Inverse folding.
């Protein structure tokens, strides 16, 4: 089940994919990208971990965090929408501008909202992948067990 | 009294925020987290009811109010619109959730509570409130889905085989219905170039008949599937008897009624003329829904299956009221809609009372099969009396709210010249009475077949009043609505008048057809004359 | 022509989805619902003008934005259907995940791909997914199974309540 090559790939690639996710997230507002896509990319990194290290190890590492992460994401997203009340209305955006080494940086509540979306997507995807991975593993184990039984009987 | 317009988003924001917080608590290993969560949800439903009542009072005094999410100009952002109709629905759903909450607290087992039953209640509430408030077709779809996702979880939490079976049927048929709604939104955007409901209403005026018919047909299928009208009701009786009784009661008060509300909102707003030209179709749907529902109820062997067929049957009356909404009659156009709204409110109250009462019996006796029950009138005289009143309110006996609703609907259909459907509805009322007598007789009359098994849960000090008080309150509400019908009639009349007043809707949402909008409009939308367009926009 | 092909594709996807949903077997149900949602998403995609290689991102200098409708539609894709499709994809992703979980749960509980009450005799006829014999094991006495009766027994005969009674 646990492949040595996949483990190597996982060790190298997972941080890279997570970095790509962060890049996509930060790129989000004015260019293609954003929280949802970043969340899906991050979830794909975790799927790679599941494939490489098996469901149980991944569950031990990420499992307890999945649902609280989604809940926190939802809270952050709604909180960002509520922050807009300060600027005149629900879901109204607030922008802060910094200038750093000549480059203008903008940060605002839409980013916060996107962060919440990303957390929700990652949390939900982890839960889903872990549950189904577990299911698939159980099915495979059962199948091999039953297969072995039939082989024994044939013998 | 003045109100910041942002307040009208609170019925969505409060349950969402508290539900998210509850979900956040869900998997944190805090001590007493279940108690914290339940307190949170209880507070949430009560605050939600308070906000809804405030909004209803405000709307009745000041008229409809609209708010733009993020303060975008109307056709581009998401509009939130509140008028008396949506405020009534908000209050009713909030009230039902407040009354169902103690019942759930008393009867939900800790296993289901651990799996997140209570936060899901808030998410269901949030979806329903959003569907009542939104002024945007696509946003309506989104809120439907939010509500349905919560309902999927509530339906299958616990995960017994029958729940899973019912859940699959429910999810698949509802998903297909939602796809129809999404397709209607797509057709609306593709042909009319807008998703804002007020904007659609304006542009629907000079849309070709094919476009109107397509959108109306898709919406009729979509909302019909949610409201369980005749050809698309099959998901309801095949899933409603599987979950915990509390869930069935909550669904009957919220889910199908949201579908009905959407019909009340959309049809008079988008194409009031189609309500007249499609009247035979709507009448056929209404009549068949009533008859099939009530005849199906006779064959059912358990309490909840019987009552779920009655849900379908009663939906037929509301469709009947909608069908005569725009027909001229001596009481004024829109009186049919007013009575349909009144009937909806009555039905929410009474059906929830019946399902909670029946659910309490079911939980107490350990069975809901009619032929294994009986003789409970001696054991539980109070429950028997309440159930009796609720059953006769459903059948339409005075002095309950069912009498007022049915009498009014009959009156308005007769005076609109729809004799056939009025006759059918009287016949169905008779059958409903028979079915209700049959139900009451099976549960409470005769000799007891078995004694209730004792359970530790039922020994808890507050169990008795927590399960009976909500039912008593609901029945008292039904009686009050029947005895003091005039104020209620005034309120629903206001709601119906606001719902059929398209110009006021468009005006409240705001001026939308800007010059810019006209310039980028493709020629096939046929909106070239600015003067004509502003007139249409009701400015 | 592109629009016509898109419409045709939407129709074919709808037809295939409806066919698959109506078939017996849960995997087909899931695939059918997937096709259904794809068809609707494609239909939404077709509601905007179909432009090639024109992402809906307007440059910062508003002066260069064309003011006339036809030019505007030709040089930028309409962003709204894309947003709608994204939302619809998210929702259908959630619902599909839920259905997969439900089907898995049913599979684990009943050991069968089929709903209870479906006749055992029809399983092995012309069903490409039925090869895997371990999965098509039905509950006992499947021949004259009354689905309603089965469900009602299952809903109303609470084993835990009886166990509690026995304990006391």
């Amino acid at each position: 089940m646990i492949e040595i090559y996949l483990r190597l790939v996982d060790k190298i690639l997972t941080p890279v994919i997570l970095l790509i996710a962060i890049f996509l997230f930060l790129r989000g507002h004015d260019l293609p990208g954003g929280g949802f896509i970043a969340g899906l990319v991050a979830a794909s990194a975790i799927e790679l971990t599941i494939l490489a290290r098996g469901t149980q190890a991944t569950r031990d590492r990420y499992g307890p965090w999945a649902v609280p992460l989604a809940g926190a994401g939802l809270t952050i997203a709604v909180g960002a929408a509520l922050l807009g009340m300060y600027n005149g209305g629900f879901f109204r955006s607030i922008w802060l501008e910094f200038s750093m080494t000549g480059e203008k940086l903008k940060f605002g509540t839409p980013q916060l909202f996107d962060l919440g979306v990303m957390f929700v997507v990652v949390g939900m995807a982890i839960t889903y992948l872990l549950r189904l991975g577990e299911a698939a593993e159980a099915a495979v184990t059962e199948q091999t067990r039953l297969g072995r039984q039939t082989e024994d009987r044939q013998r | 009294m003045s109100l910041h317009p942002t307040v009208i988003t609170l019925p969505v924001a409060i349950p969402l925020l508290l539900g998210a917080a509850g979900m956040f608590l869900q998997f944190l290993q805090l001590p007493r987290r279940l108690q914290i969560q339940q307190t949170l949800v209880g507070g949430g439903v009560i605050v939600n009811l308070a906000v809804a009542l405030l909004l209803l009072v405000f709307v009745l005094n000041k008229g409809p109010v609209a708010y733009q999410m993020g303060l975008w100009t109307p056709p581009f952002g998401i509009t939130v619109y509140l008028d008396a109709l949506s405020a009534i629905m908000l209050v009713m759903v909030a009230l039902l959730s407040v009354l169902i909450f103690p019942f759930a607290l008393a009867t939900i087992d800790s296993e289901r509570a651990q799996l997140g039953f209570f936060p899901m209640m808030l998410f269901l509430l949030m979806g329903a409130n959003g569907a009542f408030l939104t002024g945007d077709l696509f946003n309506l779809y989104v809120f439907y889905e939010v509500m349905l996702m919560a309902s999927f979880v509530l339906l299958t939490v616990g995960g017994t085989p029958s729940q899973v079976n019912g859940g699959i049927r429910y999810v698949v048929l509802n998903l297909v219905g939602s796809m129809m709604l999404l397709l209607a939104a797509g057709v609306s955007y593709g042909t009319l170039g807008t998703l804002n409901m007020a904007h659609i209403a304006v542009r629907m005026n000079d849309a070709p008949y094919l476009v109107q018919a397509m959108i109306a047909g898709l919406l009729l299928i979509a909302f019909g599937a949610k409201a369980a009208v005749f050809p698309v009701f099959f998901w309801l009786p095949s899933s409603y008897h599987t979950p915990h009784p509390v869930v069935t009661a909550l669904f009957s008060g919220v889910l199908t009624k949201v579908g009905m509300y959407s019909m009340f909102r959309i049809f008079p707003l988008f194409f009031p003329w189609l309500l007249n030209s499609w009247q035979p179709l709507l009448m056929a749907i209404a009549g068949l829904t009533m008859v099939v529902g009530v005849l199906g109820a006779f064959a059912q062997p358990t309490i909840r299956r019987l009552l779920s067929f009655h849900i379908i049957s009663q939906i037929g009356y509301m469709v009947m009221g909608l069908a005569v909404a725009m027909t001229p009659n001596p009481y004024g156009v829109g009186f049919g809609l007013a009575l349909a709204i009144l009937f909806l409110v009555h039905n929410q109250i009474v059906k929830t009372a019946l399902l909670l009462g029946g659910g309490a019996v079911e939980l107490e006796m350990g069975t809901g099969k009619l032929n294994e029950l009986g003789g409970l009138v001696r054991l539980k005289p109070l429950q028997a009396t309440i159930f009796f009143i609720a059953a006769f309110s459903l059948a339409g006996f005075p002095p309950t709210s069912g009498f007022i609703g049915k009498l009014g609907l009959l009156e308005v259909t007769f005076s609109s010249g729809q004799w056939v459907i009025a006759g059918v509805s009287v016949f169905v009322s008779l059958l409903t009475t028979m079915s209700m007598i049959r139900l009451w007789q099976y549960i409470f009359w005769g000799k007891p077949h078995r004694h209730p098994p004792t359970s530790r849960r039922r020994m808890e000090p507050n169990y008795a009043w927590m399960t009976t008080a909500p039912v008593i309150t609901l029945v008292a509400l039904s009686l009050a609505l029947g005895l003091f019908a005039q104020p209620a009639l005034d309120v629903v009349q206001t709601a119906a008048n606001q719902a059929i007043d398209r110009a006021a809707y468009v005006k409240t949402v705001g001026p939308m057809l800007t010059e810019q909008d006209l310039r980028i409009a493709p020629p096939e939308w046929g909106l070239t004359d600015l003067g004509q367009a502003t007139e249409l926009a009701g400015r | 022509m592109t629009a016509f092909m898109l419409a045709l594709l939407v129709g074919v996807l709808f037809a295939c989805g409806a066919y698959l949903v109506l078939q017996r077997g849960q995997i087909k149900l899931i695939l059918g619902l997937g096709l259904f949602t794809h068809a609707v998403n494609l239909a939404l995609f077709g509601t905007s003008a179909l432009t090639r290689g024109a992402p809906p991102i307007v440059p910062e200098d508003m002066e260069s934005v064309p003011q006339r409708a036809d030019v505007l539609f030709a040089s930028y894709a309409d962003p709204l259907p894309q947003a709608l499709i994204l939302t619809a994809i998210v929702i259908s992703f959630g619902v599909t995940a839920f259905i997969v979980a439900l089907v898995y749960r049913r599979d684990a509980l009943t050991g069968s791909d089929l709903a209870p009450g479906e006749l055992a005799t029809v399983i092995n006829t012309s069903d490409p997914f039925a090869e895997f014999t371990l999965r098509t094991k039905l509950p006992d006495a499947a021949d004259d199974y009354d689905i309603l009766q089965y469900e009602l027994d299952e809903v109303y005969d609470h084993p835990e309540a009886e166990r509690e009674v026995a304990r006391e």
Q: What stands out?
A: The mean pLDDT of chain C is 70. The radius of gyration of chain C is 25 Å. The domain at 1-54+67-110 of chain C is CATH 1.10.287 (Helix Hairpins).
